Amino acid sequence: MFYRASLQAAATLASLSLLAGCGLLSDSSSETNQQISVGTTSSPSTLDPAAAWDGSWELMRNVFQTLVSFPTGSTSPEPDAAKECRFTDATSMAYRCTLRSGLKFSNGEKVDAEAVKYSIDRIAKIKVKGGPAGLLGSLDRVETKGDDTVVFHLSKADATFPFILATPAMSLVAPGDYPADSVREDGKVTGSGPYVLDSYEPGKKAELTRNSGYKGFADRKNDAVTIRYFDDSAPMVEALKKKEIDATYRGLTAEEVIGLEDDKKEDNGLQIVESVGADIRFLVFNPKDPAAGKLAVRQAIAQVVDRDALVAKVYQGTAEPLYSMVPKGIAGHATSFFDSFGDPDVAKARETLSEAGITEPVEMTFWYTTDRYGSSTAPEFAELKRQLEASGLFRITLKSAPWKSFQEGFNKGDYPVFGRGWFPDFPDPDNFIAPFVGQDSVTGTPYLSSEITQELLPSSRRESDRGAVSDQFKRAQEILVKDVRLLPLWQGKLYVAAGEDIGGGERALDPQTVMQMWELYRKTSW
């Protein structure tokens, strides 16, 4: 097993505090046949881990296994399908895992070393655009030794590799049911996780039942979970109040959070748990667009955007301004954009444009997704439009699309400017820089920076003490500010709202901010 000397950020993310309602107390007792229903506004875009680098992880964490994972409260990856994992050399170039004995997929196939190799190899072979193949940039090859041992040989030192293996993208799949060179698209899942996916209706619901053959770290406190997918948070909250669902995760608006927290409102039998979040929102500029491709235009937008007003008007205290791609609570966080641009200043923005020979209002189109980041996304972009047009320097057209078509659009380079959200793959500064740079940027827009990709990231990955990599990531952020290809906007908080009879909410979010459904249970007494 690979251990970290210190990862305070993960501990912060894993700790949750009760804000309102009754206490969510741990209760080891469990009724038989307990069933829990959870609502979310973030539905999967795919059921195949080889294609997933988004909110699809929510479902995957609960139906698949990874070699290592993040049990609640952990600060480093710990064994799940593996019984032991560790680096075998001092240079962090070979990572060896030994599997638990007797593991099987839900179709009866063995979870052995060959299945592990098959699962990881197909990610790189399929290489879905915008998918998780980019996480395996340091992997050279996967070697099997017997039925129960796998060795990951790296092409370069990478102290973050165990964290990568802990992501749901690295879920183990049954070779017999998953094509080696294409994404599985029959709407079914064959895994070895805590639950079995009994049925799935895209955009509507997923039915999970306890996997009787599961062997791993998850201590399941319920027997079945129904995940309901909502297009909007309002009907989701209404369903919670009517007790049609037991809990919600992702998608609550600021008004809904505040309403649930308000002690003066009549008792509605609900409670809410807040997590210190590492999820961020930012704008992506397409350098091939005639307007967004101009540095002066990007700098002027960065000079005009008022994050304080955005957060106050749209998020009402449920988020905070962000001036760095690395959020607060993560090693290497800085305030680089504020240091360079200071407070919003229209005069400076006008001067920047004028010096570049731009004297007429810049016409631009901003895109956002309607069903990925919650119902506040549309008001957020309306506020961005208001701010930019109020400066007299811009004329903004807003366009939106559901996540699937939105993702296809930005991966094709169709959007001049678009909004993205990022939930951490793992709680490390590397994960807030590396995915957005290089030829295979997760934004779909290549961002070539040789200093970041060839110097700063490799240097930081040789350091096993992740608290000691701040200098490399502060320099990376200076480069991002100079280019303004990405413009951080805000850092959020995560909320779980639940009926007062539901326990386990304070343990349900792992350091990747993925909900571990097995932690939720119905209290037997008060």
From TrEMBL:
Keyword Isomerase annotated: no
Q: What PANTHER family has UniProt attached to this entry? A: PERIPLASMIC BINDING COMPONENT OF ABC TRANSPORTER, PERIPLASMIC OLIGOPEPTIDE-BINDING PROTEIN-RELATED
Signal sequence region: 1-20
SUPFAM superfamilies the UniProt entry points to: Periplasmic binding protein-like II
Coiled coil start-end: none
Record-annotated Solute-binding protein family domain positions: 77-440
Indicate where this protein resides in the cell. Cell envelope
* Main location as per UniProt: other
Which InterPro entries does the entry link to?
Peptide/Ni-bd, SBP_5, SBP_5_dom
What Gene3D superfamilies does the entry give?
Dipeptide-binding Protein, Domain 3, Periplasmic binding protein-like II
Give the family from UniProt.
Belongs to the bacterial solute-binding protein 5 family.
- The entry's protein name is ABC transporter substrate-binding protein
UniProt keywords (A-Z) are:
Signal, Transport
